[in-house]
Design brief:
The chain has a five-stranded antiparallel β-sheet with strand order 1-2-3-4-5, with no helix packed on it. The longest helix is centred in the last third of the chain and has 18 residues. Helix content is 20%, strand content 46%. Strand 2 and strand 3 form a beta hairpin. It has 90 residues and is α+β, with helices and mostly antiparallel strands. It has one domain.
Amino acid sequence: MNDENKMMSIVLEDGSIDEVEFLLSFKFTDNNKEYMIYTKNETDDNGNITIYVASVEKKDGSDPKLGSVESEEEWTRIKNVLKELSKNIE
């Protein structure tokens, strides 16, 4: 595993730029939706690092755009992926 941080810039809705650390991306093959998990290396009150999930929308010839997770079903599936990944880390 590469220990180098994979830093990237994302453009927020207000046009400002945020530097984030890319953690991973994955795609659900049944609906062809792709997602990205990233962090700003912020911690919550319990000392856990906050992570963010965004859908990735790719259009021909343009930079990928990050979108929201649209349904409770998507969130459930994403949480299941994260649970499986955390089992592999422990």
